[in-house]
Design the sequence.
């Protein structure tokens, strides 16, 4: 009968009776909607990425052309085994590789003495260099000179930066869901209608209903994880553009590191994987690459080298991350902590100098979903008890750590020690407290851009806290024999990358030694300091008579030039009284001069240090931040400054490196100019010679370097011995052999 087909029909599956009803069809419809939402998210993301690539191409092509125009035609010989007649080509006016490519085969063939074989060889070699340039050239976005092409790129990137890591997470979930739901929906179509179900065979009906059951399970999982909402929000974010070009540029200046991170991933530019992986041995690198890295509690995307650093810390368990300043060691640490939190760990401890407590708590709260617990001040023991009960990431100082009980085994998921070179002396109480915690924690991450300063043995002390067996197996004389052997020995616990290897888009760093002839007044002050044997007074004598100070005059000129260019300046000195002199001089220089912040010294409470830096960054127009180099050269980020002035050379090269890296680091959008104020003929020259020796030692043992050999005398004497030698040499030079011996100030 015609009407009978309108009734629900029985379906036999697996030997039992069942009906295909509204529930199955509702599941199928809901699965189809989720599938379409997943495809929509992927499509929206593809369009956003495509917009970036479209905006990037003309800028990148122009950079490649500029690079090829700078390569002399003589370099073509290096790109081929054939013998090329390059002299004839150069005399014809084609002096660069770029000109050769522009000329093409016809123009090249017109050069007398150049045949078709030579033309083919020339162009093949030129194309090889062009391919290499295309892969290696990095685009730098000039924030001070926006033009239509870079504006288009910044606005396209802005969409993805604003969408944030959740969009990337949504796209990844969409890819997995689409791959699973697509085939299941195809199989389940048999239950979409009664007639189709009736006409299908028993095996196909069984497969269809099994697919429906699996779709229902996937939908339940997706609902519990909030996936439909994640997809909906991601699509909205990916379709939302900036309110204006100006808004995109302002955001780029504030968050340029995130823009460049996305750009590096989208461009697909080939990087030196060995450099990004710190040149660790192959067997270690392979183990690290296979380490999973969960991002569910992280709110920031990682660059490839940063993801490797976090995996290294997880895979090797107790390590020193020695990345050069400005590469985001804090982000790598947070990535490791969030992974462990996703695996069920609940308690973590960060130990750092007081100056960066606020920065750490801010970064944890901004970059992750983890709770930050500040253990500092008079209530730190109450805060410690609260952290023990509630969990999260405790952040405390080296001094405060000594007052807390060491944890039991397994209680703390990871111990993070920032500026770990502060605990290189095993006899110091702070070092002993850190060593006890490191021993009781399953994982420990020591972070420092300066793992050793004066002696290679100091680095061994850090390794001893993490891997006592490894430290003891490294015979000190063997370690000194070759720097390559030293790096190989510590590879299981030590990872270091340098800015020039992994941040090719970083603006240029120009360093200038400003040698000044001392005025007669300066020389008098210096003479008195040498006579008294006062090394510290010798170092700052050039500022003690400010009305005639040659260094101070040059400093004022640099600040004035920066002011006229709208740049912010940070002035570093070891001495508080020098900063006081500079502040007064800048105040007297111009009544409408730049805003002056600081001085930021060791006596400024930790929380106020970060606020000083924030106020300096927020100041509209040019500004000057005065900072004691020991207090501000560690942990505080000063990307707002593009001019750095160092008032006198420092005793340790790492102190200067740290200070400069506070401005020249990931997130800097302008070229950085560093001016070192130096006086001729005295203590500054002696200290500079010493710095060069110490820098060579650091490069040989800790930075990957071409230096292959070192001798025992490469280890410097102590700072006190160096100061004594300099004082004696200066007393002899000035005819003060009967002067006072070295005395501390």
Sequence:
């Amino acid at each position: 009968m015609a009407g009978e087909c309108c009734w629900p029909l029985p379906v036999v599956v697996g030997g039992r009776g069942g009906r295909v009803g509204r529930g199955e069809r509702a599941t199928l419809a809901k699965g189809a909607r989720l599938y379409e939402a997943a495809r929509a998210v992927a499509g929206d993301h593809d369009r956003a990425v495509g917009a970036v690539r479209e905006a990037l191409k003309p800028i990148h092509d122009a950079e490649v052309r500029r690079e090829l125009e700078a390569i002399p035609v003589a370099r073509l010989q290096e790109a081929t085994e054939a013998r090329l007649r390059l002299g004839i080509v150069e005399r014809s006016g084609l002096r660069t590789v770029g000109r050769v490519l522009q000329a093409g085969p016809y123009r090249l063939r017109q050069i007398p003495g150049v045949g078709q074989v030579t033309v083919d060889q020339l162009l093949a070699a030129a194309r090889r260099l062009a391919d290499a340039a295309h892969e290696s050239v990095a685009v730098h976005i000039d924030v001070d000179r926006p033009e239509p092409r870079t504006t288009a790129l910044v606005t396209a990137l802005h969409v993805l930066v604003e969408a944030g890591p959740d969009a990337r997470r949504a796209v990844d979930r969409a890819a997995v869901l689409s791959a699973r739901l697509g085939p299941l929906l195809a199989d389940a179509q048999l239950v979409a209608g009664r007639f189709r179900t009736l006409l299908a065979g028993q095996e196909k009906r069984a497969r269809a209903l099994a697919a429906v059951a699996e779709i229902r399970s996937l939908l339940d999982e997706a609902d519990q994880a909030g996936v439909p909402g994640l997809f909906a929000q991601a699509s909205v974010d990916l379709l939302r553009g900036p309110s204006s070009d100006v808004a995109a540029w302002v955001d780029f200046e504030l968050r340029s590191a995130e823009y460049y991170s996305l750009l590096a991933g989208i461009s697909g530019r080939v990087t030196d994987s060995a450099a990004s992986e710190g040149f660790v041995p192959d067997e270690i690198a392979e183990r690290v690459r296979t380490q999973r890295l969960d991002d569910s509690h992280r709110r920031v995307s990682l660059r490839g080298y940063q993801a490797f650093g976090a995996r290294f810390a997880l895979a090797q368990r107790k390590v020193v991350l020695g990345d050069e300043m400005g590469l985001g060691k804090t982000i790598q640490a947070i990535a490791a902590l969030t992974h462990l939190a996703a695996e069920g760990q609940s308690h973590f401890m960060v130990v750092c100098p007081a100056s960066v407590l606020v920065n750490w708590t801010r970064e944890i709260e901004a970059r992750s979903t983890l709770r930050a617990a500040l253990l500092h001040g008079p209530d730190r023991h109450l805060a410690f008890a609260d952290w023990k009960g509630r969990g999260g990431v405790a952040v405390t100082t080296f001094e405060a750590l000594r007052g807390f009980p060491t944890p039991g085994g397994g209680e703390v998921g990871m111990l993070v020690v920032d500026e770990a070179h502060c605990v290189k002396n095993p006899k110091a109480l702070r070092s002993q407290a850190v060593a006890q915690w490191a021993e009781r924690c399953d994982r420990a991450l020591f972070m420092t851009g300066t793992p050793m300063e004066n002696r290679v043995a100091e680095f061994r002390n850090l390794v001893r806290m993490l891997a006592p067996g490894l430290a003891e197996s490294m015979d000190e004389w063997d370690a000194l024999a070759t720097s390559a052997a030293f790096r190989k020995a510590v590879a299981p616990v030590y990872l270091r990358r340098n800015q020039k290897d992994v941040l090719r888009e970083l603006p240029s760093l120009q360093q200038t030694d400003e040698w000044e002839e001392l005025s007669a007044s300066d020389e008098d002050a210096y003479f008195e300091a040498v006579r008294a044997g006062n090394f510290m007074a010798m170092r700052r004598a050039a500022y003690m008579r400010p009305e005639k100070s040659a260094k101070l005059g040059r400093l004022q000129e640099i600040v004035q030039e920066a002011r006229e260019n709208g740049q912010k300046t940070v002035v570093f000195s070891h001495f508080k009284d020098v900063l006081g002199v500079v502040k007064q001089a800048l105040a007297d220089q111009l009544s409408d001069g730049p805003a002056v912040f600081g001085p930021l010294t060791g006596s400024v409470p930790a929380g106020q240090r970060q606020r000083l830096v924030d106020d300096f960054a927020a100041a509209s127009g040019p500004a000057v931040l005065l900072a004691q180099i020991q207090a501000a050269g560690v942990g505080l980020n000063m990307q707002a400054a593009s001019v750095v002035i160092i008032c006198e050379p420092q005793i340790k090269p790492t102190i200067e490196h740290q200070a400069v890296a506070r401005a020249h680091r990931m997130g800097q959008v302008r070229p950085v100019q560093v001016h070192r104020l130096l006086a001729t003929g005295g203590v500054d020259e002696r200290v500079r010679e010493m710095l060069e020796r110490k820098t060579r030692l650091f490069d040989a043992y800790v930075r990957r370097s071409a230096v292959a050999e070192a001798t025992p005398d490469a280890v410097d004497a102590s700072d006190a011995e160096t100061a004594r030698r300099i004082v004696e040499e200066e007393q002899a030079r000035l005819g003060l052999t009967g002067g006072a011996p070295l005395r501390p100030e």
Remarks:
- Residues 7-270 form one domain.
- The mean pLDDT is 82.
- The chain has 32 helices and 15 strands.
- The longest helix spans residues 22-69.
